[in-house]
Amino acid sequence: xxxxxxxxxxxxxxxxxxxxxxxxxxxxxxxxxxxxxxxxxxxxxxxxxxxxxxxxxxxxxxxxxxxxxxxxxxxxxxxxxxxxxxxxxxxxxxxxxxxxxxxxxxxxxxxxxxxxxxxxxxxxxxxxxxxxxxxxxxxxxxxxxxxxxxxxxxxxxx
Length: 158
Prior knowledge:
GIY-YIG endonuclease; 16% strand
């Protein structure tokens, strides 16, 4: 069943990706508090990428799902920022948060073992998935329920 509850999102550091209706990655970002940041994008809509303050804009109503990845070392800010750079490479989003290689992220990005580990992380299943309560998602859910009821009715008749 689709999870529409923000409470399923942890309040820990992680990398997240927002997917559009076609399944493409619309945006990738990082946060020390995933739930707070995703709530800022989707519910409060006061992040720079959602308000149009940045050069590019993300329409929260068109976000199909949000996935996140966790790692025990993401509490280290430099580690998290370096992981985000790898996530950009693997997930290839239309929009990116910052993603600059800095003096503190460079050593991680030069470490092949780190890069391999992060690439595996982002190619694997996410740690969690959240589906925002958008009109598009709710319509999809109603259509899915309609199909299920129709199938049950067919089975009942046979």
